[in-house]
Amino acid sequence: MGLLLLAVDGSSDQQASADPQVAAAKAAIQELAGALQSELKSAIQSGGPASAIAVCNTRAMPITQKVSEAQGLNVSRVSLKSRNPANRPNDWQTSVLENFERQKAQGADVGSLVWSETVDVDGEPEFRFMKAIPTGDVCLLCHGARLSPEVTEALAERYPQDKATGFALGDIRGAFVVQTPN
């Protein structure tokens, strides 16, 4: 998996791949993505896309918390068009997501967009890592421009302030975020 690392310190992807913090962030993201995909796939197979919305609503945050605890990191997901208000980005995350959008507009492969930095927060170093989440075919069932009536109804019920629809294949759905714990 070739990743394009946009580190503020100017490090290359090869240098960053050797960084144990980057490796730990990638492992945490892989664990979270795998767990979420497994639950969603099972829900879609057993009850269709509307069932996946129920799983996201009740299981995504506990799964994310479990991965965070297991990895000893703060792991989350954010989006410029969030479904869950808890997944709204803060200022630095918004800046990175907007940068990802600019890179996509210039032809970058969304699946390769990653970013990291270490900053000083109250006298302590904080490692920050983000990886873009590309919109795939299955994502369009609940995040696309044309949703089934069942999905539209489930979204209205569970996420009345939903902004996470209208995506097309290959769009930036959001990003995984990994930070060292405070």
Write up what this structure looks like.
With about 180 residues, the protein is an alpha+beta fold. The protein has one domain (about 5-135, about 175-180). The protein is built from six helices and five strands, in the order E-H-H-H-E-H-E-E-H-H-E. It has helices at about 15, 20-45, 50-70, 90-105, 140-145, 150-160; strands at about 5, 75-80, 115-120, 125-135, 170-180. It has a five-stranded mixed β-sheet with strand order 1-3-4-5-2, sandwiched between helices. The protein starts with a strand and ends with a strand. The model is unreliable at about 1-15 (pLDDT under 50).
* Molecular shape: globular
Query: How far from one another are the termini?
Result: 30 Å
What strand order characterises the main sheet? 1-3-4-5-2
Helices, by number, come to 6
Count every beta strand, where a strand is a DSSP E run of 2 or more residues.
5
Give helix % range. Answer: 40-55%
Uncertain spans: 1-16
Structural class: alpha+beta
SSE arrangement:
Blueprint: E1 4-7, H1 13-17, H2 20-47, H3 49-71, E2 74-78, H4 91-105, E3 113-121, E4 124-134, H5 140-143, H6 149-158, E5 172-179
Parallel strand pairs: 1-3
Antiparallel strand pairs: 2-5, 3-4, 4-5
List keywords for this structure.
5 strands, alpha+beta
Summarize the structure.
By secondary structure, the chain is an alpha+beta fold. The protein is built from 6 helices and 5 strands, in the order βαααβαββααβ. Strands 1-3-4-5-2 form a 5-stranded mixed sheet, with helices on both faces.
